[in-house]
Design a protein that fits this description.
Layout: H1 9-13, E1 25-28, H2 34-43, E2 51-54, E3 76-82, H3 91-114, E4 119-121, E5 125-128, E6 131-142, E7 148-156, H4 186-207, H5 210-219, E8 226-232, E9 235-244, E10 250-254, E11 267-269, E12 273-276
Parallel strand pairs: 1-2
Antiparallel strand pairs: 2-3, 3-7, 4-5, 5-6, 6-7, 8-9, 8-12, 9-10, 10-11
Helix pairs in contact: 3-4, 3-5
Length: 279
């Protein structure tokens, strides 16, 4: 099998077709965390669409500050700085839809470039045959002049062989290369991802999430299955995931309680870890 094409700024820009995303691009051979670097750039006033990409990370982060497996030369680790311009939806809805919109864009870009169809696990995981091949970490803040910004971080297992995962990840992690006949060009994948993300974010800001709700629900592996939702502080919810709400919340119907005479109302979950249970 031929080796993976190296990440270079010239290679990324050779197919980049965006207006804003990636026009300011920083590529690192090794960095602690692309999200941490992008957050620092955001605080310093860097422009909308600034992208930090790395060939490897020494302290990559997922949700709940979990370590992200980030070996060199094979995967894609990037963070995109987003500053809202003219919004035609409430800021709260825009913020809640950012990780879901990023997941849609990632899945569409991967299908275009690698020919692989992914499913989505609410709110921010990319799955291939039930295994996690990617994750999205969104962090927001206010920088100069109290302007809101969001950093969208993406870690994607592209060309890493299955036998390279550490033992604790091997049963649950996957890679695109398991389902392609050659390594995927990460330069082209990043360029396509930025294009799809720019288009979906523009749609979200101008038209709201109507079509995106359908696009996300169509790919979502969480809808219709039993789940355990970890709400924090030792609290959890077990039930059936019913739908994605207009604000991006996951609607969960709690499991029947034999002590309750009446049906329990649907719970709207806006921030939590979700575990898919066996049906």
């Amino acid at each position: 099998m031929s080796p993976s094409v190296p990440l270079t700024i010239d290679n990324i820009r050779s197919t980049l077709a965006t207006t804003h995303l990636g026009q300011h691009l920083f590529l690192h051979r090794e960095i602690a965390s692309t999200n941490s670097d992008a957050m620092a750039l955001a605080q310093a006033g860097s422009a909308h669409g600034t992208v930090v990409v790395a060939d490897s990370q020494t302290a990559g982060r997922g949700r709940q500050a979990r370590a992200w497996f980030s070996p060199p030369d094979v995967n894609l680790y990037c963070s995109i700085l987003i500053r809202p311009a003219e919004l035609h939806i409430p800021m709260a809805d825009w913020l809640s839809w950012i990780p879901l919109t990023a997941a849609i864009a990632s899945a569409e870009a991967i299908h275009t470039v690698a020919g692989v169809s992914l499913s989505l696990k609410w709110p921010n995981d990319l799955l291939l045959n039930g295994k996690k091949v990617g994750g999205i970490l969104c962090e927001s803040g206010t920088g100069l002049e109290k302007q809101t910004y969001v950093v969208i971080g993406l870690g994607l297992n592209v060309n890493v062989p299955q036998n390279s995962f550490p033992p604790e990840l091997a049963p649950i992690a996957g890679s695109l290369i398991e389902h392609t006949d050659r390594p995927t060009d990460r330069n082209r994948l990043l360029a396509q991802l930025l294009l799809d993300l720019e288009q979906t974010l523009d749609e979200l800001a101008s038209q709201g999430p109507h079509r995106l709700m359908h696009a996300y629900t169509t790919r979502c592996a969480t809808i219709g299955r039993p789940v355990r939702v970890l709400l924090g502080e030792g609290r959890e919810l077990v039930g059936i995931a019913q739908a994605i709400g207009r604000d991006g919340a996951l609607h969960v119907l709690p499991s029947a309680d034999p002590l309750q005479r009446h049906a329990q109302p649907i719970i709207e979950v806006r921030a939590a870890d979700v575990i898919h249970l066996r049906e």
